[in-house]
Specification:
- The structure is a single chain.
- With 83 residues, this protein is mainly alpha-helical.
- The protein contains three helices and two strands.
- It has helices spanning 7-14, 19-23, 62-82; strands spanning 48-50, 58-60.
- Strands 1-2 form a two-stranded antiparallel ribbon.
- The chain is globular and about 40 Å long.
Amino acid sequence: MPFDASTREVLAALSLTDAKTLHRRRAGRKPEKNRPEMSQFLLPNIHFKAKTPNSPQLVWDLTATVNAWEAARQIALQQSEGA
């Protein structure tokens, strides 16, 4: 798993404009008070990791992240059709 993509590169691959949209899906983040049902499916050391041990910057596995994003979108679509 190559962790070589920047957050900007992941945003471009997912056609997102706001990094908050991506970071809200990271597992381990504190859920937002007004949206506790939001899915957090991006896992540390699988989809992203810190650039260095003490760095707040993240590097991403672009392929794994895009695959997880698309799978989550499909699940969300299926759930919304069933509701």
